[in-house]
Amino acid sequence: MNIAVTMYGINNMGGVPPYARAMAEGFRALGENADLLYISQRKKKVPGATKTFGGVEFEVIDLDEEYKRKMDKYDLVIHTIPCPHVGVARHKITKKNYKRYRNEVNWMDMYDIDSPIYSVIHDSYYEKFYPWYDWVLDKVDAHICIHENSWLYARRMPVKRFLTPMPIDLDDMIHKYDSSSRERMAVSFNYFKPWKHVDQLVRIVPELQKADVKVELFGSGYTYYHMRNPELAPKKGYGTIWPDAMASDNFTYHDWQHDPNFKRDWYLKSMVTIDLSDSKWWQKNVTRVMMEGMKYGSIPIVREANKSMFYNEDNMVIVPKGMDLTKAIVNIIEDEDKRKEIATRNFNAVKRHDKKRVAEDILNMFKGKTEKLICYEDAVSNNVLDFFGDD
To answer: Are the beta carbons of 51 and 7 closer than 8 angstroms?
Structure first.
C-alpha cells in the first residue's frame, strides 16, 4: 500500500509530529510505503522543500491546484491534524464570523481528493478549538481514536470510528527492572501549558530537596515564561516558585529535547516520571511521556485524568488534586518492591502501543477486518456535531 500521513499546520503541534513519525514507521515495518507530508498554504513555493517539527522531518506538499493529483496516488490518506486550530484566526470564533473565515481559507481543499481519508481524533476539544471540522465530516471515511477519551468524543460524530492506541517505538525498550542504576530522581518532559500543570511540580521542589529527591525538568512554553517573569508570575498565581526552585540544589531545568536517545538516558536514570496533565477537556487520556516512562521502567506519577480503560492504579501512581504530591513521590521512590512490581507490569502493558501493532489495526480497518480491532463502531450517531447550527 501507498499511505500518506499528513500534518496540517497549527499554532502548537505538541506531540503530533512524533505520533505521525511512529505511525509511518509502523507501516514501513510492515512493508508498506508511508510518506510524511506537511500540508502547506505558503505563497512562495520551493520545490523539494522539507520542514522539521519536533525533530521530525516532513515533505512539504502545497494545497494548490496540484494537490489532488499528488494525493490521489495514495491508497489511504491519514490526516493527523484534521483542520485549522482557532488560533490561526486571531480573533474569537462566533456563529456570525466562522463561516466568513471558512471562506477565506482553503483548508477544506485537503479533503477534495478521491483517496480514502482517515482523520485522527486526539482529544475532546473539537467544539472549542476546531469549530469548523463538521464541514468536512461527510468526506471522512473513518476516525482513528488514540485513547478512551477521543473514542468517547468521536461517538458524537457521524463517522465510523475505531480505537487504536498511540503508537510508540518499542525497539529499545527494556524488559527487566534494575533499581541499582537509578537515582532518587523525578523527571518531567512537557510543554509548559496551563493544562500540563508543570508549575505544581516546580512548587514542591524545595520540599523534595528535604527528602533528597532530584528534579530534572525538560520543556518550554509560555507557562515557563510566566513563571520566570517577576511581573507576570504574581499575577498568574506563581509567586516566586521559579526562583525558589532554581535556588534549590536538587533542581535542574533543561530546554526541550527532541532526541529520543537523550530522553532515554534520563528515563533510565530516574525512578519516577511526572505528568500532571489535567483539564475538563482532557480526561481518560494517556500521554507520550507516560508511555516513554513505562517502556524504560520509570514509574508514572499522574492525576486522575490519566486513569482509563487501559491504565489504572496498577500501572501508575495516581495523585488526586488536593492530595500531597510530595508525599506520593517520596513514598514510591522509597518503595523499591512497589516500583519493581509496577514497572514489570508496565513492560507488558505498553506492548499494545507498538507502532507495528497500531499500523496493523489501521490496515485491518482499511481491509474491513473490524473484528480484530479493540473497539469499532459504524457511522451511526444519535448526537451529530453541530457547533453553531445552520443559520
So the answer is: no
Cell numbers linked to 328: 506520593
Strands of the sheet with 299-302, listed across from one edge = 251-254, 214-220, 185-191, 272-275, 299-302, 317-318
Which domains occur in the chain, in start order? Answer: 2-167+354-377 (3.40.50), 179-352 (3.40.50.2000)
Percent of the chain whose predicted confidence (pLDDT) is above 90: 57
CA distances from 371 to 32, 57, 164 (A): 22, 35, 13
Read off the pLDDT of residues 260-294 as tens digits, 9 standing for 90 and up.
788 899 999 999 999 998 876 666 677 888 899 99
Contacts of 173 (CB under 8 A, 6+ apart): 295, 296, 347, 350
Is residue 344 within 8 Å of 179, Cβ to Cβ?
A: no
Q: Are 375 and 155 in contact (CB under 8 A)?
A: no
pTM: 0.87
